[in-house]
Amino acid sequence: MSKSLPSEYRAKVRNESWTNFSVLRHGRFDGMLVTSKNSGTHWLKYMLAVALAETHGIPRPAYFSENAVRPYIGWPKDDATYAELPSLAFSHTIPHHLAEWGWARSLAGLPPYVLAVRHPMAILASHHAKWEYDIKVDWLTYLKGAPCGSKYRCDLYWLARFWNRWGDIRARHGDTIHVVHYEQTQKDPRAVLEAVSGHWSLGLTPAAIDAALAAGTKEAMAQKIDPDAEPNVLQNRKTPLTELFTGEAMDIYTDHIRTLFRHDLDYDLLSLPA
């Protein structure tokens, strides 16, 4: 790692890469969903949960919230709710180096991963729109980010750490990691659900996938909002990316991408997403 990078950022990378042993919990699962922030996590998990419920003849989740979907795709520390379901979990984790060493992966019994991501420009715009009321900073200040990693839930420094660690692992163990782009899910959600089903050997039926697609429209999900869940999950960003990423904002973004990111995860990071 270049010594020209901020010392706070380098310290955060070292800490996450060598002290986050949560990856060892993954060995108890049949499949693990890892997602970057603001990348359609609720949407993808909800569709998968509905498809699993329909395939196995159990009740659907009442809402699309994280807690409602946890019995189907839970946190790594959760116990199983439905014995008939495959054991699946999700995380936003930035994993220990153990996850890229072959001997350690085998010893830990790490499962096949689905890595769900979105173009960083769209992630940043969505995250700022969703959490502006909480972080209380303007767009340019937010784009500059916090190298220490403790000011924002997600900024360019967090995205770089996430992209780089999973990019490193994918470079060595790509056959165990299926990458899903949010934009791909928007374009052809059926193909994405079928691919995830195949990667995890879920055996989702065509009728179950039909049900998941119907339940996963924005209109249908708007009727399944959990009154006890976090607000703004279905937020609609009003300012287009073409306006957000121009002038000084684009200069800040470009500099961070070129300085911090080692992997692109199959995106053109310096161009607006299609």
**Order of strands across the widest beta sheet?**
2-1-3-4
Q: Which of globular, elongated, flat, extended, rod-shaped describes the shape?
A: globular
CATH topology title: Rossmann fold
Assign the CATH superfamily.
Answer: P-loop containing nucleotide triphosphate hydrolases
* Residue runs with pLDDT of under 50 for 5 or more positions: none
Main β sheet profile: 4 strands, parallel
- The end-to-end span amounts to 31 Å
Tell me roughly what share of residues is in helical segments. Answer: 40-55%
Beta-strand content estimate = 5-15%
Which structural class should the secondary elements be placed in? alpha/beta
Can you count the beta strands? 4
Give me the number of helical elements: 13
Tell me the name of the CATH class: Alpha Beta
**Rg, please?**
19 Å
One letter per element, helices H and strands E, the order comes to: HEHHEHEHHHEHHHHHH
The overall average pLDDT, rounded, is 92
By CATH, the architecture is named 3-Layer(aba) Sandwich
